[in-house]
Specification:
The structure holds 2 protein chains of 2 kinds. Chain A is an all-beta fold. Chain A is 0% helix and 49% strand. In chain B, strands 2, 4, 5, 9, 10 and 11 form a 6-stranded mixed beta sheet that branches. A 5-stranded antiparallel beta sheet of chain B has the order 1-3-8-7-6, with no helix packed on it. The chains are: A mainly beta, B mainly beta. Chains A and B meet through strand 5 and strand 10 of A and strand 4, strand 5 and strand 10 of B.
């Protein structure tokens, strides 16, 4: 049982390039989330999804897009990467239980992204 | 919306001593409060959580207390060990269809 798997684990991009980060969960969770973690800033929510085919903006959505075409996958896209998007990106998922905030989140081990 | 403040941002303790991390929240409707531990190079992992119908919960050397009146909750680690060194995050539930709100984290160092 893998839990939450993020690919790739590391990536270096040049400014202006695009890429997609993939998150896959095998726990049949309804809710999925993307965070970025920067020194001293904690975890900041980028986008989240409350079910297949749905997405919503979090605290810092600008410059990112997401898609949830399958329940088990949540994709995070950077259309035109900027140095300010250098960060560690975490995906998480949680069970369906009333609201997205009433159950614990299960995290992947992150994608370390550097943009030059 | 919900706002979660976490203190201190860094904490150093001697091995065997206790460590306490405190969080305050703003929304009196919040009813779920998890704590996460993040080791170097890993994602956050849930270590303990508490719901608003109880005031305290223990799991071996870890305990969480909740004061709903004052809107704060705390993580207590007793008999600290070097492997407790990590970043710890608190979080609180929110109203409506929005996710947990996280504190900014506490870096705990246990000195052998």
């Amino acid at each position: 049982n893998a839990g939450v798997t993020q690919t790739p684990k590391f990536r270096v991009l040049k400014t202006g390039q695009s890429m997609t980060l993939l998150c896959a969960q095998d726990m049949n969770h309804e809710y999925m989330y993307w965070y970025r973690q920067d020194p001293g800033m904690g975890l900041r929510l980028i986008h989240y999804s409350v079910g297949e085919g749905t997405t919503a903006k979090g605290e810092v959505p600008d410059g990112y897009n997401v898609s949830r075409l399958k329940k088990q996958n949540f994709l995070l896209g950077l259309e035109s990467a900027a140095p300010s998007q250098t960060s560690v990106y975490f995906c998480a998922s949680s069970e369906l239980s009333g609201t997205p905030s009433n159950q614990p989140q299960h995290f992947g081990d992150g994608t370390r992204l550097s943009i030059l | 919306g919900e706002n979660v403040e976490q203190h201190p941002s860094t904490l150093s303790v001697q091995e065997g001593d206790s460590a306490v991390i405190k969080c305050t929240y703003s929304d009196s409707a919040s009813n779920y409060f998890p704590w996460y531990k993040q080791e170097l190079g890993k994602g956050p992992q849930l270590i303990i959580d508490i719901r608003s119908n109880v005031g305290e919960k223990k799991d071996q050397r870890i305990a969480v207390t909740l004061n709903k009146t004052a809107k704060h909750f705390s993580l207590h680690i007793t008999e600290t060990q070097p492997e407790d060194s990590a970043v710890y995050f608190c979080a609180a539930s929110t109203r409506g269809n929005t996710p947990l709100v996280f504190g900014k984290g506490t870096r705990l160092s246990v000195i052998a």
